[in-house]
Amino acid sequence: MTERQLTMTMLPEKHASSLVLRLVGSTRVRIGFMLMLAVVALAIAGPFFAPYGPTELVGVPFDIPQRDFLLGTDTLGRDVLSRFLWGGRSLVWMSLAATAIALTLATTLGMSAAYFKGRVDDAIMRLIDLKLAFPSIVVALLFVTMFGSGKLLLVLLVGISLAPTGARVVRGAALSVVGREFVQHAQAIGVPSYRILLRDVLPNITSPLLVEVGLRLMWAISALAGLNFLGYGIQSPEADWGLMINENRNALSIQPWAVLAPVAAIAIFTIGGNIFAEGIARVVGRTDKEEAQ
User: Fold this and answer.
1) Domain count, the chain
2) From the CA atom positions of the chain, what is the Rg in Å?
3) What 3-state class would DSSP assign to 173?
4) Do 243 and 204 form a contact (C-beta atoms < 8 A)?
């Protein structure tokens, strides 16, 4: 390996090291991460502290908070605290899975469009334009109506619906990488395309991908909670935060905790993701600017 090629290889590593240090030192990134981590911890550990089962009838409907029911009861007389502690697991793992699907599709489509160009780029971009022409919630409702509201289907639908916007971002970032000398050198010596994409292109677009993680997660939470609230997602009697809001919204003035508790959890998770994404965007922008100087 020549000195020039060695320098080309070391630049992304130096950039990544500097980026990680700045991310760890960013107050916004830490705050956003801690908010999301708190909700994830609640979703994972919550069921172990629930005083009752999530579907257990323990009192009269919409009973006020008291010693046996710290947050009162819901529309069927189930303990609100227990359903709240049980209700976060589905939303957390489904939103994380949908985000992973969205980023995988976005990265694959975006890098392929930027690298192969020509007809491949045109075909991918027109396919993305076609998807963006239809509102994501309408597409999700259509498929849920036809095939049912299975969790895996919801995750797949939300992941696919979030991929097109991310693919555009990835394509824009990859276009500035595929024209560099080290990529052209790899092409000239016959390195397979998939290796070039994974080893040369992908490591150089990690900055925008980090930003997309927070943004896609935030939209995945909103989409899944919205589908559950509309009744097209997780079905009763299973515990879910979005479903809890829908079930108890008519008695908000009588028993507000059945609605306020899941609303607060969803809001904290979403706000944390927003702060996390904004913090990453600021750090990435500052790091890229300094590296360019």
Assistant:
1) 1
2) 23
3) helix
4) no
pTM confidence score: 0.82
Q: Is there a contact between 140 and 231 (Cβ–Cβ < 8 Å)?
A: no
Please check whether residue 21 lies inside any domain of the structure. no
pLDDT for residue 236: 79
Q: Which amino acid is at 71?
A: L
The distance between the two most distant Cα atoms of the chain, rounded to a whole number of Å, is 77
Low-confidence ranges of the chain (pLDDT < 70): 1-17, 19, 285-293
Residue 14 has what pLDDT?
54
CA distances 171 to 89, 174, 253, Å, are 33, 5, 49
Residue 168, φ and ψ in degrees, nearest 5 = -65, -40
> What was the pLDDT predicted at 2?
42
Q: Residue 193 sits in a domain of what CATH number?
A: 1.10.3720.10
In this prediction, residue 48 carries a pLDDT of 92
Q: What is the pLDDT of residue 105?
A: 94
Examine residue 208 and state whether it is found in any structural domain, yes or no: yes
Question: Contact 276/39 with Cβ under 8 angstroms?
Answer: no
